[in-house]
Amino acid sequence: MATFTSAVFQNEFLTEGADQVQAVVEVTCADAGKAGDQGAVGEIIIVDSSGSMEGDRIAAARLAAVAALEEIPDGTWFAVITGTNEARLAYGNPEGGWAQAMVQMTAATREAAITAVRGLWAGGGTAIGQWLNAAAYIFVNSPVVQRHALLLTDGKNGEADSVLAKGVNAATGVFQCDCRGVGADWNVPELRRIAETLLGSVELISDPKDMAEDFRSVMRAAASRGVPDASLRVWVPVGGDVVFVRQVSPTVEDLTARGVAVDQVNHDYPTGAWGDETREYHVGVRVPVQPLGTTRAVARAKVVVAGTPVSDAVITATWSDDATLTTRIAPEIAHYTGQTALAAAIQEGLAARAAGDDASATVKLGEAVRLAAETGNDDATNRLRKVVDIEESGTVRLKKKVDELDAMDLDTSSTKTTRVKK
Amino acid sequence: MAPSESVDDPDGASSRTTLIAHPEDNPTQSVSPPAAGGDRPTTCTCGGRFEGGWCDTCGAPQPDERDHVVVSISPTLGSVSDRGVVHYPNEDAGTVADLGGPVACIVADGVSSAEGSQAASGAAVAATCAALVEGRSERAGPEPPDWFAALRRSRSAAAAAASSPEVRGEGEAPSCTWVAAVTDGAEVWTAWVGDSRTYLVDDDGHGRCLSTDHSWAAEAIAAGTSRDDAMADRRAHMITAWLGADAPEIPDATARVAVESPGWLLVVSDGLWNYCDAADDLAGLVARLGGPNLDAVALAEALVGYANAAGGADNITVAAARLSGPGPSDTLPTDTPPTDTPPTDVTHVAGDPTLPGA
Fold it and tell me: What is this structure's pTM?
């Protein structure tokens, strides 16, 4: 049986009249078991088969899809979608249409699916909204409770924004989706938005040869998540508000807009499935001011599984007139505030660079270099060095020649944070 | 001071418990602190319900009878245990006892990482008190009593109580520090396990700490690390000895000193000494607070207030006994049988100070 534990990092002392409280809540899941322990599991592999995939990419995608199929445990419900300017069922139940597309993994279906994906060919456009819509339709009509997809693309979406948005909406809350981009022709911010909304990761696969190993590890990770779904329930006292809720480790994701009111004092934020892992959340709340010397619970963060709270982190505040107490800054809050700003600076800098605004790009990426150094994010520093030259004075210049894959790697990795050194 | 069982906190969010020895049931005066998990209110004054120690509507902390426990035996003997500002609930326990002339101060500090440590500290203090009181009949002879033997017996009783199945929670075994001190006015005997301490402070602002912590910091200092470096380490407060089911071998740590001048015997938890470590600093603080002129509970309250004003990061417990110093001390009934005559100025108000042999 999975157990969730939590710890709170904060400075609980507030100055007189202060109404803003922040805390970092660390949540750890242990003994999660494996996918399927709590109900039927479904996997859908979505492979971009647009014309641009022709050559090495479609060949690598076939091998990667085979690798993924080999990892999917027996008994899992699954299907393979091949995507062009429409979604087609590359492998699944041939009868009954999309609604009954999933089949259970057995030796025979694995064999048949592998044969099918080896026959994938490239041709046509990129319509990610339609692919997501098809996967959502399959999942909602299936018997599975734990729903995961892996989406591979190599190009920018060819649909109108509204069509993509419709597909993402259909998938939101229905399944989690890890997204992978191969090559240098896809749009990082676009795929990142999709992955974040669908509670999945986004990664660049620079070299098609690495695709099979990546697919294998995605499937292994999915199979290790024994808690199919959980929410973070944030409580604030009557008269208070949630200002923000961000996941800050292992990646930065702003959850604020995804809160669903449970009642007057509780909001639920989706967190997807859990394996044995630790995630950290940065929570900011506004609370009713209390007199000096008063202590109050000003926020609580509970993990809720199947409607039942399974952990409880209490964030307290004590109003004090002692400046030595109230001016302390919890290192965890400083660290993750810096890492959140780092992710934003990288993304904004690269967006400015892509738009040809070199002046803004230089400013933002310079800020990113400083924040990466301050927060000890050496991986980010190393990636930044491939896009900018950092002079000894700390001055930053855009490199004349940049491998576009390095810029995309910096962009996709921008949300990855380091933890506080303890 | 007019004691009462439960006085509302100004912000309505904490509970105060005052325990006074019952004259009839209690020929030798002693009081055990309340056990954990007594009758706590389930509904907040705002109308919300308490969940996990906090109101689910306004966030106020749930009152607990251990929040603020005052034990008042006489103007010269009393204790205060307070939950502090930050750490909920109060896992400290403390009390004082009149052993028929000689008096005892007892403190235990529950280890907050283990569920049930609040009950463990309460049980340890109650058992210590009971053992010291029970032993008084053995001491009713012409020979001066062997207080070390009495303290060791009470330590065994405390160790058994802290590891009894009744205080077990789920997971890690509950545990607590322990310290007890007895004085007949001329001398002080003390024994301890962990980092709760026995101090002697005189009215001129000089202090002595009789105990040596069983803690990472104390061991590091003994091994040559500077005090500042040791105390700044994350492990400084890790204790190396404690009472509880998973306790390593309990060290036989004791000390005995003569009382040289008038002052106070103070037995305290780290919630106080975190803010006033050096013995002379504590003595100076007591002097500034008006120590010579305060009664025992007022002094303990003042010291608790000092720690809370400094941040109150941990639970705070102070047990205080007035020392009149040498000279007239030979009039103290160190070797006379305990009196059965209760003082007349004490009324019983508090919960249920169940006493051994009562």
Answer: 0.75
